[in-house]
Amino acid sequence: MTVNWSRVFPALTTQFKDDDSLDLAAIERHVETLLAAGIGGLTMCGSVGESYALEPDEKRALVASCVKTVRGRVPVVAGVAETTTEFACRFMKQCEGLGVDGFMVLPSLIYKTQPNETMLHFRTVARATKLPIMIYNNPIAYGGDVTPAMFYQLMDEENLIALKESSTDIRRVTEIRLLCGDRYTLFAGMDDIGVESVLGGARGFVAGIVNVFPRETVCLFDLALAGRYDEAMAIQRWLAPLTKFDNDPRFVHYMKFMLGAVGMGAERMRLPRLPIAGEERARAKELVETALATRPKLPDAAPPKAAE
Asked: CATH homologous superfamily of domain 7-237?
């Protein structure tokens, strides 16, 4: 499938059973719920998906399950978050065999690469596949920063197609557009600035909160793409008390808590992560209950047509 890099691509959560094994049946049910909400694509094995807590064979099983469940209805993009460039290239080859449509690639994990090392990493993975790639930039979470100037230097790698910008600095979207023009499709990467990112030139949204409120998140972004900013902002403001958790170091904890609170999945995480507790849990519960009680009536928001 040709990837139309646009609209909401959920950063899929990974569901576990009580014995810590993968719950592929629960994941498949969740994917169907997201598809019914009208998502534009699907990403898995990312930060929200707890990729770092998965064994290599579990990552492959998760990717294969998602490809089978989606059945070509939207593009399936595998997250590539590995400790070395060689491991990243190897995983990409495995995912190609499983039928993915593209990749979302992070800098190498654990070691904070120097700029020249970061550039070599992305050039090497780009040349290891013919499938399209989204670069995921999240300097706060992973240490290394892919700057607008570095994106400019990578423009000659033809299959580096899209950028997920998660630096939290909304000015970055505009800076990248000024330097690189329309060379890359830009994706919002933080849950609380989807509309602002569209105003800066973003066309897609790799979102976490869509796991919990899929219809609302899809509607919010499609409205923004249609230029209906007031309506989009009304939904974004309603979600704001919850999307602030995306900036917390325990964003996975809060995402899993919210999934359980709305009946969309299990809260279970693998150690050393433990469920939020005490006053923090009570506050999160109150915020979710308020969101459910004030859930907005969604306006019609026809998805934009795919680019020819």
From this structure: Aldolase class I (3.20.20.70)
